[in-house]
Batch of 4 targets.
Target 1
Amino acid sequence: MARKNAFYAQSGGVTAVINASACGVIETAREHRKQIGKVYAGRNGIIGALREDLIDTSKESKAAIRGLLTTPAGAFGSCRHKLKSLEENRAEYERLIEVFRAHDIGYFFYNGGGDSADTCLKVSQLSESMGYPIQAIHVPKTIDNDLPLTDNCPGFGSVAKYIAISTREAALDVASMCETSTKVFILEVMGRHAGWIAAAAGLAVEQEGDAPHIILFPEVAFNREKFLARVKRTVKKYGFCVIVASEGTQYKDGTFLTDSGVVDAFGHQQLGGLAPSLAEMVKSELGYKYHWAVADYLQRSARHIASQTDLDQAYAVGRAAVEFAVAGKNAVMPAIVRGKGKRYSWSIGEAPLSEVANREKKMPRGYITRDGFGITEAGREYLAPLVSGEAYPEYRNGLPRYTRLKLAGVPRKLKTRFAV
Amino acid sequence: MARKNAFYAQSGGVTAVINASACGVIETAREHRKQIGKVYAGRNGIIGALREDLIDTSKESKAAIRGLLTTPAGAFGSCRHKLKSLEENRAEYERLIEVFRAHDIGYFFYNGGGDSADTCLKVSQLSESMGYPIQAIHVPKTIDNDLPLTDNCPGFGSVAKYIAISTREAALDVASMCETSTKVFILEVMGRHAGWIAAAAGLAVEQEGDAPHIILFPEVAFNREKFLARVKRTVKKYGFCVIVASEGTQYKDGTFLTDSGVVDAFGHQQLGGLAPSLAEMVKSELGYKYHWAVADYLQRSARHIASQTDLDQAYAVGRAAVEFAVAGKNAVMPAIVRGKGKRYSWSIGEAPLSEVANREKKMPRGYITRDGFGITEAGREYLAPLVSGEAYPEYRNGLPRYTRLKLAGVPRKLKTRFAV
């Protein structure tokens, strides 16, 4: 097998551990110098390839690459850009091939979620459709935990841990204040179509009465009367009520409780402002004093309290992707496989990309309690191991020390420019 | 000196380390059994005294009390209840004396901020004004860092650390996404009248271009045009802009940028919703895609990443309060005194309560840059040591293990009830 360079890109919303996958890819590629030359990262994801804006990771020191393990967000830049079908936008594919050929790229590692898996699948088909030999391996990543064929998605465990911890902590605050002040606290969390992140807040419950008292899932149609009645009952019983609401909470007809009207490149609506809406509802109907928080990017970048399990898995899928590539595979994704035993264990399996792309894994209804406001024991058993272990970063002067890469550009070889 | 019981109460908004002060008070009182009998905690602060609803801390195990060191929020419950003057509400003072006498209470430890220092001062004067012998010691606590005569306030260092870390982390997220998506990120933080917490975000800056690019302080009149121009310039220069906004950000005439209309027991307005307002301003005027977060209670309960310096100081003021009491002092507050040396050091001093109550320490203008959007080197020097060190709690199953107290009530001795 001739030695080829590799292309690596981060795609879509970033996570606390996506750089750990990058670390896994780069470190493992460096161990296979016979097959893999250099790893070029796309500056800002796939558009870096389209623009021929590549980062030469071989210019980064071993320590800097290792530092990716403890650095949140996308060190090479990410993007929200979905390749259209070959029929719709042949120019983009031709450009990719042009760039790949110019830089002798034979491996394509794409680190993203469901939409990105679709892009990766399309790239994997370039060999056949356009006669350019390339092996495309998808490296799973999404805080939404909605990729199929993998037990869970790297990035989810850390946001789950952050939300569970924050819920427990804020609940202690509300409990302290509720006698004369705040009685209702609402934490809005990410999760557009699936309530995985909101569900993770349920891990904060250890015994009867513990917060969160109400979880709102996108999977359960929001019923205003039922919700308000539960808030009232909870405040009467415990003195306060903690609500964790998924941003995708929606009415029976599918309309979101709040809708900012902004649509992203994938056609998804940008949500936000659910917490203040719910707070107003509680205030006007029940009169309780409230506080609300919207964690937003804080939740998915919280590397300071990342899950060790999540970190290990993020690294492992990066490593496995390269191992798959050198084994000659194409159009696959390393998947996390949960062991059968009572004690949690996991290993890396292999999933065909054609079965991953554009398919969303919903949360099983059996993970949500019958009343729709909490998680079941089955849900807890699934979630608990994913938040296990604390992967603390190194600190300097009281703040986490995150790696800074050189991000040196690869000299351009093409004369043509491509507008993205 | 006859042995007397002690009363301890938590007051006002809680913090990540107020329980460490409780731990300091209780553990130190247990070392002085000759002078101090039992420590009774007010259930939900001072109203626990008014209602004769006392918690017997002697029923708590040594381990449970030690667990307070790592448990955020107010384990005994707090309240927002300010005693009026003796002239305005003599009944409340008479009731306090009745309860103190019934339970043989001779020491009053009040753990709170500026308003609470005023309450503590009033109680300290009961000996003279109403002929009941009591020693009242104030134990400083406030995330607002606005108490005078102490270099800083326990509770502030931890929220400062949380905000600085969260800003750094979220900024990496925005930097990853800005090429095709979010360009402006706004984090709303607490701080009604003083910008101490917002200022702490400035610690995230290590080199030119680092976030936060704009800090909004209550001390600096908000100028819409200047703000928007700075956002635009920052996005043009760095590709993205991170803004940390104090909830108390206000126009020149003193009106807050947003005002929920709700007023708390101390007459303060309940603020909130600044971040979405600023985001809308940015979107409508500059067209940038935004994200925003409101940390709210998450910031002040974030014990999982508390500052070790803050924790040590919170414990120390609790310990010192008891030592002051057994030394016969009254109407004083342990204060944190910063050492003169180049290397940060601190010790505990003594501040007269009459000079603490109802006085707010403003942030020196010299800590804010001339353009009003950042912190100076002097500000950084003041803030940096306060966030130093990571005081991690113990974890169990991936979540912090926080102490649960028995909170056993002290049998009532009075027949009269008192409505609060």
Note: The CA atoms of residues 60 and 167 of chain A lie 38 Å apart.
Target 2
Amino acid sequence: MADMAARLSGIVGADHLLTGEAIGEDYAHDEALSNDPVKPAYVALPETADQVAQLLKTATELGIPVTARGSGSGLSGAARPREDGLLVSFERMAAILEIDTENHVAVVQPGVSLEDLDGKLAEHGLVYPVYPGELSASIGGNVGTNAGGMRAIKYGVTRNNVLGLEAALATGELIRTGGKFVKASTGYDLTQLIIGSEGTLALVTEAVLKLQPRLPHQGTVLAPFADLDEVARAVPKVVASGLGPLIVEYIDGLTMGAITYRAQLQLGIPDEVKETAHAYLVVQLESRTADRLDEDVAEVGELLSGLGAKDVYVLEGTAAGKLIDAREKAFWAAKEAGADDIIDTVIPRASLPQFMERVRAIAQENNTFVIGCGHAGDGNVHLAVLQKDSEVRERVLHGLFEAGVHLGGAISGEHGIGRKHAERFAALTDPAKVDLMRRIKTAFDPAGVLNPGVLFD
Amino acid sequence: MADMAARLSGIVGADHLLTGEAIGEDYAHDEALSNDPVKPAYVALPETADQVAQLLKTATELGIPVTARGSGSGLSGAARPREDGLLVSFERMAAILEIDTENHVAVVQPGVSLEDLDGKLAEHGLVYPVYPGELSASIGGNVGTNAGGMRAIKYGVTRNNVLGLEAALATGELIRTGGKFVKASTGYDLTQLIIGSEGTLALVTEAVLKLQPRLPHQGTVLAPFADLDEVARAVPKVVASGLGPLIVEYIDGLTMGAITYRAQLQLGIPDEVKETAHAYLVVQLESRTADRLDEDVAEVGELLSGLGAKDVYVLEGTAAGKLIDAREKAFWAAKEAGADDIIDTVIPRASLPQFMERVRAIAQENNTFVIGCGHAGDGNVHLAVLQKDSEVRERVLHGLFEAGVHLGGAISGEHGIGRKHAERFAALTDPAKVDLMRRIKTAFDPAGVLNPGVLFD
């Protein structure tokens, strides 16, 4: 134990290896609900990629489980350490190394937050368009879970916007994958394999991000509909229009009430509309010019009216920003409302009504309260489950995931499997695929030290 | 031998297993230059995914090397079979299984050609936007090499537009990866891992493709520049404009002469401009409305004039179509001109002038003729090498690849490593990465029967 600590502090320096009482509470958990905190044996705060590589080499040699931590905003327990393990926190590796305006890429360390990056990019008229709800999230964490968010319908998710990585392997080598280019056909795509692997294959020490021009004008349309069926029918039409929406979200009536109340947001929707509107569609557009934006917003409005919207509200700057912000913070609203768990199953978007019907049935059968909203454009449904009894809750969660998988979906759209869902992942996935993934894991991590218990049961 | 044939024909039926003289010349090669044809021992023409899985199971059991073939239009020899091997041709698995207009996806078998698919999608106002030069290419082949093409700057390459796969493993299981959704964080992304693996990890039996609205209006601007440096400086400005170009190509003066001559294409460029223009930039835009297209085309024209273009030509429909078509067929022009090899190194796009300077130096040192054009928007440079002496040619190719890798690029942007470049791939790639890829290969294909000699030396 003391010997291990000596080895590890030899790598990062005594000041940057924490043990025992020096390890703060924050390191014991991420934001996953109903997942007890666990303090790790060691927390290392490396400063360089070489230090990360040496930490992994040592961990493999000594058989110490290793968990990576960005800003700890994950929702599936993938950053919750092991009691006997080493937590590698990237807080000291948070530099924006380069903003390359010729190739339109940024090179960053994993600890950089989305918020810091966005501030810097704005100065150059550029944007890294991946936009998960939590802007304190780190790029490293985003890569780990393949973070998505509302703008996925236009710009894709993390894996569509990361061009290359530097990563430390469990065996101590540092490799570089991809680069400042958008295409390659030169061997297996290790960048894509590491993205979404939740710290089980390698530890990312640098990322090359694809940037987009920052379009200056944004407009938001809010349309109440009678029910989710109508919303689901409207979505493909909005997408097929070619207007290229930035955001297409649905919010159910109850969630709309909760998030607008929490944000003290008045949207000017009359009570008689609220009473009969059980599902809301939010469409945000962006454009290079104010004129074109106005035309596009008007066109979306007409389109939605023709598709059965009870009314169409064009939200002005502040109200629109607040609504999107409130929607982003739905997780916190759910948490405050006493949610015991949240899930983010993804399904083919046209199956949204069928899925929600199953959700209602499962909730009712189990006397459980389930509310939600979701990325209607991409079928990613966020549900909050309120059920204190852990046995009943397990049954509900299993039922919800099963319903999603049965409709051709997947357990998680953007939160990840983590520790929380490893057992369910094993139960609901083709064993041939799980076995194959385990063999891939072993190809990267022969000693099995990288985040054991995450992804695999 | 007879026993093997009996086993294989037991799976696909005697009519669909070819041996000996029944095997046509076409099955002996793809379109890779300077790569001798090899007739395989067996050609199987399966009709179902189950048959493919059974073929692989049997091949693993008996140790028969297996090569997959789509339409044979590959340029790196990845579809060239082994003399002692089994070629699995997907010509009988060429159905478009579903065009889903709600979820905007198509489900297709691997033998479907881009051309057939495009014809069908046009009826629905949709498009599968990946656009490599050769439209007879099959989707299966596109998945194998992660095919790119001119529209990558707007829509990405194959890996950005394939949402899921059904694939047969070497061990005989059929797995499904991904699905009709654009995001997931549910285990390793096997879809992405199989894309670009050139038949060395699994055989694709079905693909779920992401579709886009088909925008009706396209406009093309051709701008001659003094040299490539000016072109390279203009490209980031065109991209940063937010106009979202569909195509940004550069064509050098010589290649422009060759392809326009071959296509008998008159672009109306005066001789005095031609004499001083050593590099051309082609920008194609698309739009929902004719008015907006006109505005955008005018804006690009002004932008390019301000960036040093000698003139700006807005090409009318036919001329534009012919130029893009001629550019697509540059490979055939190069072949007819006697090219002994072609390469498609990718580099960060801002490094294009430096790269081309190295190219000129290498060509001169080796008394070799090297001409080219390329995807200026994404740094993917296509070069034709005219050098009959295979030893000198090898030296030139190695030098070109080395120059690309040295600038932070990769050996191939879209053609793949195949058989042709396996040795160079091994020589120019970090051994830690090659070893890792070999271990991944083994995780999929323990007996090493899938396309041995491709990718790995």
Note: The domain at 335-421 of chain B is CATH 3.30.70.2740 (Alpha-Beta Plaits).
Target 3
Amino acid sequence: MDTSVKTREAAQTIDALITPSLLLDRGRLERNIQRLAEHARKLGVVLRPHMKTAKSIDVTRYVFPGEPGPITVSTIAEAEYFAGHGFRDMTYAVGMSPASVVRAMELCRRTGADVKLLLDSVEQADALAGVREDTGVTPSVFIELDCDDHRGGLKPDDPKLLEVANRVVAAGANLVGVLAHAGESYGLSTADALVKAAENERSATVRAAETLRAHGHACPIVSLGSTPTAHFAENLEGVTELRAGVYMFFDLVQHGVGVCGLDDIAISVLATVIGSKPEKGWVLVDAGWMALSRDRGTANQQIDQGYGVVCDEKGRVLEDVIVAQASQEHGILAIRAGSGKSMPDLPLGARVRILPNHACAMAAQHHFYAVVNGDSPRIEARWERIRGW
Amino acid sequence: MDTSVKTREAAQTIDALITPSLLLDRGRLERNIQRLAEHARKLGVVLRPHMKTAKSIDVTRYVFPGEPGPITVSTIAEAEYFAGHGFRDMTYAVGMSPASVVRAMELCRRTGADVKLLLDSVEQADALAGVREDTGVTPSVFIELDCDDHRGGLKPDDPKLLEVANRVVAAGANLVGVLAHAGESYGLSTADALVKAAENERSATVRAAETLRAHGHACPIVSLGSTPTAHFAENLEGVTELRAGVYMFFDLVQHGVGVCGLDDIAISVLATVIGSKPEKGWVLVDAGWMALSRDRGTANQQIDQGYGVVCDEKGRVLEDVIVAQASQEHGILAIRAGSGKSMPDLPLGARVRILPNHACAMAAQHHFYAVVNGDSPRIEARWERIRGW
């Protein structure tokens, strides 16, 4: 067991990095960003990436090498952070609450940003009049649609759609459009089903926009997206913008859905072997759920990846080795049940990289990315992440 | 919908708090701390609380109102943080890796702290000689025991136990004792089974200590503990210290095991209603897995609590209302399947408190506690938490 390890501050290579640590492969990140940008271009829509996965201005700079573009955020804290870095056109893609509206409007007043809000009820629409009065800012709002029974939003054919739109206008707010998220697409696993889910998301959203336009609402933005449907959409006629977030990093859930290969997954947790139980086929590492997250998103997929797929220190997948169990700071590596393989040699002090079930959840457990490229041990940069609300 | 909400900085009451926010009920915290302290006193053992749950110096001050006492930590970052606040006697309860040893010994040299390490192999024992040479500090080490096939550690009757002990001494390190953790007790649910698990943990640990003593090792510390066995132990003869962490806060998993009541659970997430789907019996709140964690520890218990039990704004349990689904920033509240009840009225903007499946995991998603007491809305203090490794 070699104990000549430097502290994190001095780390120039991953060999000297404290474990567990979050790695981000820059080459894979760039390739993933490029892939969806090209697809959006071909389909003739604006891409409005969701920053809830990366939560890092440094990642955003790879998405927008020039001027800051339109983004989606999942918290007002993200909106405040990205506004501080020059972003102006943002959609807060969570239904508005009393507190979030006030903070969003204060941010708009302070920075000149346009933070677009989501609502799906007349109560929320009616509250906008007071907001305008109190803050001096005219809120921009989307009506949230429900295209697949996933979560919130109005069905495209719900008569309340028009009522809510009228109340938004009556409150003096700016109705910018309709917005849907095909969240149920995460549960699919064939190209056919994904193409259909994408078309369902499109047709539902466009139908709602047409209803509003037929009643005098301009509805300039028709926004939809989820990482699976964004990649499988073949036609986005009538749609103006596409949203996706996890596509920058990808993960094992997206791999199980069929959107990416294992070699596209851009983040992993670097861990160190701290013990073994040869009689059980276990190798213990110092990455538990605190580093990997408790996400078990692959549990209901065709291949259950446990708490993550294990790669060697250079990022090469160790076939059928997964994190079988996780406690707070311990992970137990084992061979996937039924695979018939045996554990590779992973002595004390050896390093592994663990791919995430869910990139958003794994990344959220860390406060920075150690940026690497391919199998090189060199750390190119350290990128901070934000958290909180 | 009332939009007169202040920002987090100005919050004096939870009504003005940004949601989601982590609440900590001081009265419950004090009661839980008192309960196990008294039990340890009766059993005649030292209590060495695990700080992996609270990760906050302010919480620690309720455990040790006077001088800092002995604690357990799950990361070297915790050891560094608590050393900075005057703690000296610490056990790092994760198997040592090359990097963790070096950082721990550097901390000892710098501050005079005694950070005790864990090992269960001759390879780790042999590495200690070099550590002593490199850092000038004599490492204090425990041999980790495996009393219930939970994770790492040597079986008490494993011949390697003596070999490892001898190699520790040969490396010039200080063998301070043996340590076990009855992690499998989390899977139990009857008092009988818990009493038996506690006695098994005790007898296994004491047996190992006696073996070592019979061969000339002093083995002064006999350490064991898990929150369930710590509370159900009836006799700790031969044991010198007890460890537990989640007992300060408790959670739904511990409630399911039978260690605490719902009214003992000291932390919760305050959330705001942002929508509803009456036709589905859903109420949407702005706390998803980012605020609650992805932990589903009650999924395999007799009562599956979803992503958490829902209380009203004052902390009174709303019977059979749970967080049925969670996405990143959305929680879906619904009635527990089969309960026959109907959803209480939770209008837009209403606040609820959500109890955790797993306190360690929920707390880790937040960077501070808003400290409250009982059903009062007043915020008494804001306590920071640490994170990272």
Note: Confidence is low (pLDDT under 50) at residues 1-8 of chain A.
Target 4
Amino acid sequence: MTQPSDKALVPFVSVDNMMRLIHHVGIEPMLRDLAAYIEEDFRRWPEFDKTARVASHSEVGVIELMPASDGTSYGFKYVNGHPKNTSEGLQTVTAFGLLADMYTGYPVLLTEMTLLTALRTAAMSALAAKHLAPAQARVMAMIGNGAQAEFQCLAFRALCGIEEVRLYDIDPAATAKCVRNLARSGLRVVPCDSPEQATLGAQIITTCTADKQYATILTDNMVGAGVHINAIGGDCPGKTELAPAILHRADIFVEYSEQTRVEGEIQQLPSDHPVTELWQVIAGQATGRREAVQITLFDSVGFAIEDFSALRYIRDRIKGTDLFEPLDMLADPDDPRDLFGMVQRAAG
Amino acid sequence: MTQPSDKALVPFVSVDNMMRLIHHVGIEPMLRDLAAYIEEDFRRWPEFDKTARVASHSEVGVIELMPASDGTSYGFKYVNGHPKNTSEGLQTVTAFGLLADMYTGYPVLLTEMTLLTALRTAAMSALAAKHLAPAQARVMAMIGNGAQAEFQCLAFRALCGIEEVRLYDIDPAATAKCVRNLARSGLRVVPCDSPEQATLGAQIITTCTADKQYATILTDNMVGAGVHINAIGGDCPGKTELAPAILHRADIFVEYSEQTRVEGEIQQLPSDHPVTELWQVIAGQATGRREAVQITLFDSVGFAIEDFSALRYIRDRIKGTDLFEPLDMLADPDDPRDLFGMVQRAAG
């Protein structure tokens, strides 16, 4: 075994350690913490080096790299999207991520991000709703009860004070799973037989379904005045969830408009349709909800800065814990020019 | 501890295991194997999804992601370039890489690539020389005796039959290190006091210096008729090693012209100066060396397909060995939709 320097060992958070961290911190506090880190980064949005994700498409899915940098740290996420995976017993989305120091170029954190993405997506949704939904919202409709559903429900409870979630999925087994998992959450959980029933009395409607096609999960008549829509399932070209009529009645908020116009619900609209970037609301440069009857829509596709915030949080939060392993990932000879000598000396 | 499925555990090759693999295979056989994998992929070049690297620059360096895919597998490399690192006791270049299955989007290999990049770069150089250098070349000048130098010398011995290397570096300590490391290589090793002395009688000249600026490592008068130049240090915008006059006397071969025009020696030339992509020579679609007096130049900046080939090789080569560890990197619940339930059940 070689004796690498501290910098050569990259802290690695496995899936197992991520689950321990969630229980160590508590899931609702962790969702609040993640929202706080995202909020902090959205406030300083113009400081970031923003790049559209780099995608590699095949007929059955996509693999993407999502980099972002604030000039001091650099982060990226590897994430796949394969809707057909579920039917083969695999995850639709898996992910891992890395944080590095811009000054040395050395990685400082490698972590699983399948779980972390579920958490940061839920934290992002609830953070947006904190700024856009009616302040007295207590009931949320959750349409699509897959892998993301419970995280969404808990984030809206933790950040927005939601007390009742009304669940609907085309597959009743998904709803049953969600009801079971939320049994001890403190939420009032109401399984519903139709999307119409789910939206009844809801001030917030979250749509999160996984079909890779234009679908109409939400029709115009289901959306009353004053509602906030949190649309997270329309997140790649050709995949949308909302009837276009809803988009015309709503004030639309997005993460990074350049990306959302290609991937989000607004791909159904002309490319000059007015939208507001959420960071402007958070930084006090634009208005969120103006009035009670207004329909607000957060057209969320996920952006690299949210992953950057999540990576920053994990790096900070694991300090002083045993919830990571040092990974021998970087060759680091005593004399940096003597890479070959290091290999030679390892022969013994 | 959870019970992840096979697919959730990603084989990881640490620096330590990469060194063991090198000694297990033998460094010269491994350089030949890598060249064979690169040659195979260069032959089917048009099949690849080619993307220019995604770079994030700071004042002191750069971090890059280099993805490539052949439609079946997807690979990418994370690599930094920080010339000032050496003076701080760190590597100028560190790297790691990942190979994934395009059909599922699941990673199938994570590996250190600092050592692997040194090996694949040397294999690439020697492979190019096999097609471009005079067949009877036995003497190589090696200008720049840093971390890459010994790998280059051994690759040219293994693939091109080089018997003598003539070493020069502005820092004599670097040359001394290189002489020491090559003592038992079977090469005749001649330390030189000047680049002129190094190039004396050499049929191949390799330049590999690390200054991040326009420099003239090789002047016109040092390059005689019939020489093959392997220029690997001019590899980013603003960083070149050759006097422009040499470029006008040489037939120029590159990896991916779109990238080389920005990063290579030819950034000193008009953007329409004729160059040949090496894959065309390897695939039999273009001529390499035509005659004895011709000066050939391989203007190498490194391309993602070479890393893809190296990743493929490691994946194939570690099968049946114990030279990797399974990494718990992908969350993989029994029911793919029950990510939250997996977290809940881990609480116990």
Note: The radius of gyration of chain A is 21 Å.
